């Protein structure tokens, strides 16, 4: 490794939206070209709630992975108040599912079927704790009285911490943390807790959405926060702390759905994340920590083997180029623009 050339294990993405149908076919190659595995989100319409649903969705994904790409989708189930613990156990033990996903009802895209009463979800959560099945958590409350910028901190106090005290053996991933509060909560707990951090939350704060007009392609949920929170995320991601790892939350929406009177939440970063991360880690003087964040900490938390394949990035004098949009059968999807040149290229 040098300051201009780094080699690391092929990365994984521990939080990814692929959608379905024409959108799935249009975006899958943007992930499979760069990542070996990804945790696939289950918030389709209708959601992936049973093992049979996960098998069918996995088959649809595998059918459209471009030839020559070596990629494994890691399937999740959408946790509901009626989720059957026996079905979850069967899916996990058979290797079909890797985790379950908790969406508080109404928290984000296609989350209407999420959990409202956690007591009703306890039977499956208890079974998960006993089997070591990870729970991926969208950590925001949906109480309309709570300011959108405070939803993550309130979720930790009201929901997550009580749940973890009730089920300390439950393995939990706080997905796409966006606040200093989230960082500090993870650091204060050394057992059964990890967190993913997205590429875009390392780069933008809430000014990117609102200054100089409304910029819908920077709108996501959880929404980007104040600058102090972005800096806390960067410090955590580049620290070498094994509890933090990459989950892009790359979430494609067609431009007409983003650029509308009620625009969808989601930022598409699948095809430029690796090079953007090299830029961020270089800025923080932490290129030696990039492999841990992108390729090691995640599989270790999930109890999966590390990827054997390697990739090499090198810094050049000319800027890398990325497409402004990708075309899908559903329509164009805008690619995240960091707003500055990136000089890291695949070697």
TrEMBL record:
Residues that coordinate or bind substrate: 17-19, 43, 138, 221, 253, 265
InterPro entries the UniProt entry points to: Amidohydro-rel (IPR006680), DHOdimr (IPR004721), Dihydroorotase_CS (IPR002195), Metal_Hydrolase (IPR032466)
EC number: 3.5.2.3
Zinc among keywords: yes
Binding-site list for Zn(2+) 1: 15, 17, 101, 249
Residues where Zn(2+) 2 binds: 101, 138, 176
Keyword Zinc carried by entry: yes
Catalytic activity: (S)-dihydroorotate + H2O = N-carbamoyl-L-aspartate + H(+)
Pathway annotation: Pyrimidine metabolism; UMP biosynthesis via de novo pathway; (S)-dihydroorotate from bicarbonate: step 3/3
Location of N6-carboxylysine modifications: 101
Active site, renumbered: 249
Cofactor detail note: Binds 2 Zn(2+) ions per subunit.
Cofactor field: Zn(2+)
Function summary: Catalyzes the reversible cyclization of carbamoyl aspartate to dihydroorotate.
Subunit structure comment from the entry: Homodimer.
Family: Belongs to the metallo-dependent hydrolases superfamily. DHOase family. Class II DHOase subfamily.
PANTHER family attached to this UniProt entry: DIHYDROOROTASE
Protein's UniProt name: Dihydroorotase
Lineage of origin: Bacteria, Pseudomonadati, Pseudomonadota, Alphaproteobacteria, Rhodospirillales
Gene it is expressed from: pyrC
